[in-house]
Design the sequence.
C-alpha cells in the first residue's frame, strides 16, 4: 500500500453571489435563446387580452368604469402565473436532463441553484409585465390613480412573481419532466379564471363566489386594480385600496413561508 | 497543507436502499491513487448508485465511504471539491455554446472570469472541440456532447473523475475518440472511476476492474488477473479441409479439459486447457502425426466475456 501526498483542493469554490449569478445567467440565456418561448408567450398573452378586450368586453357592463381599465390589471396580475409555468417546465427539464445532478455535485452552496433561478425568473417576469402593460396601453388602458400608486402596483406584481416562483419550482421538481410539469401547471386555470381577474365575481354562483372572493389571485388582482384605477375601482369592489394591498401582502408572505422551505427541502433531497 | 492519504477511494460495507430494494448491499471497494478503476456489471447492479454516492448526490444508509480520506457522509462539501462527475448522470446546457458551458462550470468551481476563460480554452483544446467551441451545444453530435461533458467536469481539476457509462449510446467511432481522450487524462495523472456494461471498454481503459452484481463486488483485480482467475487458456485450431474438422476435434478432446467446440463456418475447433502452457505443445504433437493440413493454431487467454460469466455465473444475456 503506497501513501501519496495529494494537493489540497485549490482555493475556495464560488461563493453564493457568484454561483447564484452564474445560474441566473444560464436561465436567462436559455430564455433569450429560445425565441419560440418568448414569441409564443407574448403572442398568446396579447391574443387573450385582445379577445377579452374586444370580443367579451362589450357584453360585460360595469358601473362607473370601462371594461379595459377593469381587465388589464387582471391580465397584468394573472400574467405572473402564466409566466411562472415557464419556471416549472424549466426546473423539471433541468432535473430530468441531469443538469441539476451536475450542479449538485459541484462545490457551490446548494441554495445557489434555487436563488439563481428565482432571480432569473423574476427578471423574466419583469419582461412579461412590461409587454402586458405596453399592450394594455395600446388597447386603451389608462391610469386613474397617482404615478406612485402605479409604481407600487408594479412592485407588487414583481413580488407576486417571486412568490409564485417558489410554488412553480416546487411543482417542476415534483413533476420530474417538462410535460408533466406543464400538466400540473394547469392549476393556474381555476385560480386565474375563478377570480376577479377578467369579470366581476358577483355574477358567479354563490359556492363559486365563495372560492373566488377568498383566493389569493382575486386579492392580488384587486390590489393592482385599486392602485391603478383609484376611486372608481374602490367603489366597484366595495373596499379601499389598503384593504386589498394588505391582504395581498399577507398572502404573499404566507405562500413564500410555505412553499420556499418546501422547495428547498425537495431540492436538498434530490 | 498537504494531506496524507493512502486511498483515493475506500468503501466499507456500503448500503443504499430505495424503499425496500437494496441498490448497494454491503459493497466493499478500495481504489488506490494512480488507478483507473472500472465498475463492470449488468443494468441494476448498483453502479450508478455507487457513483452518485461518491458524487454526494445520495446519502448512504449504512457503511462508510471515503474519498481522499474524507468521509462523504460527514463532509460532503469537502468531497465535492475532489470529485467531478460526467456521463449519463451529468449534462450540459444545449442552448449555450460549448465555451459558455465550460466557462460556467469553471466559474462555479471558483475560478475568476479570466482564469475561467483560459482554463476553458485549454480544456476545449484537449477535448478536440476548439473549432466548435462557439457553436451552441444543440448543434453538437452525441460524441461531441459527451466530450464537452467530460471537459466541463475536468475544468475544476478534480482528483477523482467519475465517468458514469461514458460511451453508452455512442457510435463506434465516437466511442474510440472518447476512449482516446480518457486515456490521455489517465496519462496526465487523473484518477478515474468509470462504470460500464461493456467488457471491452473496461479491458481497454482500466487498470483495475471490480465486477458488481446485486449491489456487491463479486470479483476485483487487474483485467489479467480476472481473466486468469476465470479460467483456462484456450487453444484454437483452424484446418484447411472441412472434412478433417471432426478428427481434429477428437484429438483435441483427448487432451483438453472439456468438450471441444466446433465452428464449421470458420473451419476451427476450440478447447480449453489447464493453466499450464507446456500442455499446449503436448496437445499439438498428436495433431502433427495425423498429417492434416493446418492453417492456424492460436493459444489465447479467455476473453473478459468468458471471465465475467465464470465469475458471476450470470447468463450472457444479462450482461448487455
Sequence:
Amino acid at each position: 500500500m503506497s501513501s501519496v501526498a495529494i494537493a489540497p483542493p485549490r482555493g475556495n469554490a464560488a461563493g453564493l453571489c457568484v454561483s447564484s449569478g452564474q445560474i441566473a445567467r444560464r436561465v436567462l440565456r436559455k430564455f433569450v435563446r429560445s425565441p419560440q418561448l418568448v414569441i409564443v408567450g407574448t403572442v398568446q398573452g396579447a391574443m387573450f387580452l385582445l379577445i377579452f378586450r374586444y370580443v367579451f368586453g362589450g357584453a360585460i357592463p360595469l358601473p362607473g368604469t370601462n371594461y379595459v381599465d377593469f381587465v388589464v390589471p387582471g391580465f397584468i396580475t394573472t400574467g405572473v402565473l402564466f409566466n411562472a409555468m415557464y419556471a416549472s417546465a424549466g426546473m423539471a427539464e433541468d432535473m430530468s436532463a441531469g443538469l441539476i445532478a451536475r450542479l449538485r455535485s459541484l462545490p457551490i452552496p446548494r441554495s445557489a441553484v434555487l436563488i439563481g433561478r428565482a432571480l432569473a425568473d423574476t427578471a423574466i417576469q419583469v419582461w412579461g409585465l412590461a409587454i402586458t402593460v405596453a399592450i394594455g396601453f395600446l388597447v386603451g388602458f389608462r391610469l386613474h390613480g397617482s404615478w406612485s400608486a402605479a409604481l407600487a402596483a408594479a412592485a407588487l406584481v414583481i413580488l407576486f412573481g417571486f412568490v409564485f416562483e417558489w410554488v412553480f419550482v416546487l411543482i417542476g421538481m415534483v413533476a420530474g419532466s417538462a410535460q408533466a410539469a406543464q400538466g400540473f401547471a394547469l392549476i393556474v386555470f381555476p385560480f386565474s379564471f375563478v377570480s376577479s381577474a377578467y369579470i366581476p365575481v358577483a355574477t358567479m354562483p354563490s359556492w363559486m363566489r365563495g372560492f373566488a372572493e377568498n383566493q389569493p389571485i382575486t386579492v392580488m388582482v384587486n390590489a393592482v386594480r385599486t392602485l391603478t384605477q383609484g376611486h372608481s375601482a374602490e367603489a366597484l369592489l366595495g373596499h379601499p385600496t389598503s384593504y386589498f394591498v394588505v391582504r395581498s401582502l399577507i398572502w404573499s408572505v404566507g405562500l413564500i413561508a410555505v412553499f420556499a422551505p418546501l422547495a428547498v427541502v425537495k431540492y436538498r433531497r434530490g | 497543507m498537504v494531506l496524507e492519504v493512502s486511498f483515493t477511494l475506500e468503501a466499507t460495507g456500503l448500503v443504499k436502499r430505495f424503499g425496500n430494494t437494496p441498490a448497494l448491499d454491503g459493497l466493499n471497494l478500495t481504489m488506490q491513487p494512480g488507478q483507473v478503476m472500472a465498475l463492470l456489471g449488468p443494468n441494476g447492479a448498483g453502479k450508478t448508485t455507487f457513483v452518485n454516492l461518491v458524487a454526494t448526490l445520495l446519502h448512504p444508509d449504512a457503511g462508510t465511504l471515503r474519498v481522499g480520506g474524507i468521509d462523504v457522509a460527514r463532509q460532503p462539501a469537502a468531497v465535492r471539491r475532489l470529485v467531478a462527475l460526467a456521463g449519463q448522470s451529468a449534462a450540459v446546457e444545449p442552448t449555450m455554446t460549448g465555451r459558455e458551458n465550460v466557462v460556467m462550470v469553471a466559474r462555479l468551481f471558483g475560478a475568476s472570469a479570466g482564469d475561467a476563460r483560459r482554463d476553458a480554452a485549454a480544456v476545449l483544446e484537449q477535448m478536440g472541440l476548439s473549432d466548435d467551441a462557439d457553436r451552441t451545444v444543440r448543434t453538437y453530435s452525441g460524441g461531441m456532447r459527451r466530450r464537452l461533458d467530460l471537459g466541463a467536469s475536468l475544468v475544476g481539476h478534480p482528483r477523482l473523475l467519475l465517468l458514469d457509462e461514458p460511451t453508452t449510446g455512442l457510435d463506434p467511432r465516437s466511442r474510440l475518440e472518447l476512449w482516446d481522450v480518457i486515456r490521455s487524462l489517465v496519462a496526465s495523472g487523473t484518477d478515474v472511476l468509470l462504470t460500464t456494461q461493456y467488457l471491452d471498454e473496461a479491458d481497454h481503459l482500466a487498470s483495475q476492474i471490480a465486477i458488481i452484481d446485486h449491489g456487491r463486488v463479486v470479483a476485483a483485480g487487474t483485467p489479467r488477473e480476472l481473466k486468469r482467475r476465470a479460467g483456462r487458456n484456450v487453444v484454437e485450431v483452424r484446418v484447411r479441409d472441412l472434412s478433417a474438422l471432426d478428427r481434429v476435434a477428437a484429438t483435441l478432446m483427448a487432451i483438453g479439459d472439456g468438450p471441444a467446440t466446433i465452428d464449421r463456418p470458420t473451419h476451427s475447433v476450440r478447447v480449453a486447457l489447464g493453466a499450464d502452457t507446456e500442455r499446449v505443445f503436448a496437445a499439438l504433437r498428436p495433431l502433427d502425426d495425423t498429417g492434416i493440413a493446418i492453417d492456424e493454431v492460436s493459444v489465447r487467454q479467455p476473453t473478459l466475456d468468458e471471465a465475467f460469466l465464470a465469475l458471476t455465473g450470470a447468463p450472457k444475456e444479462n450482461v448487455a
About this structure: The longest helix of chain A spans residues 67-97. The mean pLDDT of chain A is 89.
